[in-house]
TrEMBL record:
InterPro entries: Aspartic_peptidase_A1 (IPR001461), Aspartic_peptidase_AS (IPR001969), PEPTIDASE_A1 (IPR033121), Peptidase_aspartic_dom_sf (IPR021109), TAXi_C (IPR032799), TAXi_N (IPR032861)
Record's keyword annotation contains Protease: yes
Protein name per Swiss-Prot or TrEMBL: Aspartyl protease family protein 1-like
Family affiliation: Belongs to the peptidase A1 family.
Ranges of Pro residues composition bias in the record: 482-497
Length: 525
């Protein structure tokens, strides 16, 4: 098993178990990974004698296998042809240690090398760390993992299918910086004033597979950035092993797959709700005929998927706001400009019974609340967003939990005032519990509630995955029925990270312990 695959499996376990105080399941995966965990790591996680022996990997194995079976059997699918996914599988994982973005395990080159890349609809270029000297992260130990976990770096000379893209090539979007037509095409992609990747463009093979039970191999030639210099957050804890841009420009992976007639010009991403950290991705997926939809537009110079929000209601009471926003999977949280930010947060705050905490200048989240003593659930108002065309999204988990220095429970609304970004951004926290379809042929975004690895409308020949026992269940949110008067959603507080049971005045967990390091960015724009 190659290094990057070990990394993905390891991080899958860490992500799940860091979300729970205790993590148990039944059975074992087909190979042992507990050698990756030192005693120090187990103790720091508070999971002594649990992580190495659990069947958490089996949980992911069963889910992924079940998903592959049912993905080709949608009852109301729009798909004329079988979608494809990465050859390592359609599983994506939101890794808190790496900024809580969604990551996938992919293979590139000949022979194939594996990489752990962030999936980003807010950018276009697919790049990997490459010939980058001291600016590359070579081990996850360098970003906070307590055990040495090496990462692969892309080496064009080691791949027989790699070739340089010259400045004379029409694929060279950075040709203005070329010294001559025969020069190797340079690129630079900036995600913020201080975070960027710089290098040269190459072509190589991305290894894919049909997203069904056959898993038929598919090879695609893609434009790839050889990232020779990374700055800012790319050298700290964000996308340290590369980014797979999913934007609409012609050199993004979805565009290249469609142009080569490998898939339809569409793809889907599912954002977990029950676990909240596990999802899936599928290229060529057009979604369901009964999904809700809204047109999307792209406003230059941005290439993100922009939508018009026509209305918002909080606790079923309309809030007089409407705005243009980007759907961006590269953003962990949602960012809103004034007056939308003030109107939404005030309406939310007015309906929350728990005591609001004083604003802490060290914490960018302004609406945080102390959970009342002896309370086992969080009640928060139903928030619903309406888009052009009438489609609606009900927010399943708009908050995240935290623990104060005294060990008390607090929770925060995961909405930030958009100042540095200068845009409204609908981040992945607002998409939790939905399968979102980016249909670039019809220029629409579609969505439908989904558990990502379960579809109650389908029968499966595989047994359901084993349940994971936890001290406190993960967030469960249910919208009130139309006849139910209280406009409030009740949720069990997510469990806490045992590593952060003590900390600063607002030691935010599980998300913000790492996300506070990336708040100047939080979205790849």
């Amino acid at each position: 098993m190659d290094v990057a695959r070990q990394v993905f499996v390891l991080l899958s376990v860490l992500v799940v178990c860091w979300g729970f105080e205790r993590c148990e399941a039944y059975g074992k995966f087909g190979f042992e990974v507990h050698h990756m965990f030192s005693d120090k790591v187990k103790q720091s996680l508070g999971l002594d004698d649990i992580v190495p022996e659990t069947g958490s990997l089996e949980y992911f194995k069963v889910l992924a296998h079940r998903d592959r079976l049912i993905r080709g059997r949608g009852l109301a699918s729009n798909n004329d042809e079988t979608p494809i996914t990465f050859d390592k599988g359609n599983l994506t994982v939101s890794i808190k240690l790496l900024g809580a973005l969604y990551y996938a395990n992919i293979s590139v080159g000949t022979p194939p090398s594996s990489f752990l890349v962030a999936l980003d609809t807010g950018s276009d270029l697919f790049w990997l760390p490459c010939n980058c000297g001291t600016t590359c992260i070579r081990d996850l130990e360098d970003v906070g993992v307590l055990q040495s976990v090496p990462l692969n770096l892309y080496t064009p000379n080691a791949s027989t299918t790699s070739s340089n893209i010259r400045c004379s090539d029409k694929r060279c979007f950075g040709s203005r910086k070329c010294s001559s037509p025969a020069s190797i095409c340079p690129y630079q992609v900036s995600y913020s004033n201080s975070t960027a990747t710089t290098g040269t463009l190459v072509q190589d093979v991305l290894h894919l597979a049909t997203d069904d039970e056959d898993l038929k191999p598919v090879k695609a030639n893609v434009t790839l950035g050889c990232g020779q210099k990374q700055t800012g957050l790319l050298r700290r804890n964000i996308s340290v092993n590369g980014v797979l841009g999913l934007g609409i420009k012609d050199y993004s992976v979805p565009s290249l797959l469609a142009k080569a007639n490998i898939t339809a010009n569409s793809f889907s991403m599912c954002f977990g709700r029950v676990i909240g950290i596990v999802g899936r991705i599928s290229f060529g997926d057009k979604g369901y005929t009964d999904q809700e939809e809204t047109p999307f537009i792209s406003v230059a110079p941005s290439t993100a998927y922009g939508v018009n929000v026509t209305g918002v209601s909080v606790g079923r009471d309309p809030v007089d706001v409407g705005f243009f926003a980007k759907f961006d999977t590269g953003s962990s949280f949602t960012h809103l400009l004034e007056p939308a930010y003030g109107d939404l947060t005030k309406a939310f705050d007015d309906l929350v019974d728990d005591r609001r905490r004083p604003v802490d200048p060290k914490v960018p989240f302004e609406f945080c609340y102390d959970l009342s003593p002896n309370t086992t659930s969080i009640k928060f108002p139903l928030v619903e967003m309406t888009f052009v065309g009438g489609g609606k999204i009900i927010l399943n988990n708009p908050f995240f939990t935290a623990r104060t220095q005294e060990g008390n429970v607090m929770y925060c609304l995961g909405v930030l005032k958009s100042v540095d970004l200068k845009n409204n951004v609908i981040g992945q926290n607002f998409l939790a519990g939905y399968r979102v379809v980016f249909d670039r042929e019809r220029m629409v975004l579609g969505w439908k509630p989904s558990l990502c690895f379960e579809d109650e409308s389908l029968e499966s020949t595989t047994p359901p995955p084993p349940e994971i026992e936890t001290v406190a269940p993960s967030p469960t949110v249910s919208a009130p029925s139309p006849t139910s008067p209280p406009p409030v959603i009740s949720a069990t507080p997510p469990p806490f990270d045992p590593r952060n049971s003590t900390g600063g005045a607002a030691s935010l967990i599980p998300l913000t312990s790492q996300l506070l390091l990336l708040l100047p960015l939080l979205a790849f724009l």
